[in-house]
Amino acid sequence: xxxxxxxxxxxxxxxxxxxxxxxxxxxxxxxxxxxxxxxxxxxxxxxxxxxxxxxxx
Length: 57
Known about the structure:
about 55 residues, mainly alpha, elongated
């Protein structure tokens, strides 16, 4: 892909892009926070499992 085509693609994306509404922004934040929380709980559970099981091995 040439530089000219790449720039055309970037310009197209900038024309289509828009600022999210407050509701969209808040919902995105909630989903991200939920995902981070779930990953954190899974990581903590794995950590606790290793801490509790390691002395018995």
